[in-house]
Design a protein that fits this description.
The chain is of the alpha/beta class and 182 residues long. It has one domain: Rossmann fold, CATH 3.40.50.300. It is 48% helix and 17% strand. It has nine helices and seven strands; from the N terminus they run βαβαββαβαβαααβαα. The strands form two sheets. A five-stranded parallel β-sheet has the order 2-5-1-6-7, with helices on both faces. Strands 3-4 form a two-stranded antiparallel sheet.
């Protein structure tokens, strides 16, 4: 890797666990966009909005060479020309719901994040920001962080296209969908 590679995905998909492992395997500097946003004051409360321009300039200033940059804010912070490849971590919505509940997320936040993962919000934003030639998806539902890091490292090195993940196909009735989102 010569430039910036990225890892993004909905909260709970494994970014924080997997990204440092991938960065170590690729011998890259590792930077969390979300941590940097908190440190540099790019997050505003109570609105919860992000000063994207401030965050972008901080990320680009912090990256001193080839790097792995990760976080769910990645598609909103970096531009297509800034990134070599990006992997969107995906997780089956029912598994994601369990992960977020285990972290103690409030019901509303779980519903919002599970709904976003179900319809692929971060994935769509990554494809929109970086293009299909640079964007890959990886399912972490049944992966350990180490196993996922090994496969993601190979994916980043080879850059072969991956199929897009569509969780909506699993929910063919209103009852299934309501059970997921309640």
């Amino acid at each position: 890797m010569k430039g910036i590679v990225g890892v993004t995905g909905s909260p709970g998909t494994g970014k924080k666990s997997v990204s440092p492992l991938v960065a170590a395997r690729l011998h890259l500097q590792c930077l969390s966009v979300n941590d940097l946003a908190r440190e540099c004051g790019a997050l505003t409360r109570p609105e919860g909005s992000v000063d994207v321009d401030l965050l972008r300039s901080r990320v680009l200033k912090m990256v001193t060479g080839p790097a792995l940059v990760y976080g769910h804010l990645l598609p909103y912070v970096l531009e297509r020309r800034s990134i070599e490849r990006v992997v969107v971590l995906r997780c089956a919505p029912e598994a994601l719901k369990r992960r977020l509940a285990a972290r103690g997320y409030q019901t509303r936040k779980i519903e919002d994040n599970v709904g976003a993962e179900l319809i692929g919000v971060v994935s769509a934003d990554a494809y929109g920001a970086f293009g299909s030639a640079k964007t890959f998806e990886f399912d972490t539902t049944r992966s350990t962080p180490t196993g996922a890091a090994e496969r993601i490292t190979r994916l980043m090195r080879k850059g072969r296209p991956t199929p897009r993940i569509d969780w909506t196909l699993r929910y063919d009735s209103g009852a299934k969908l309501r059970s997921l989102l309640s």
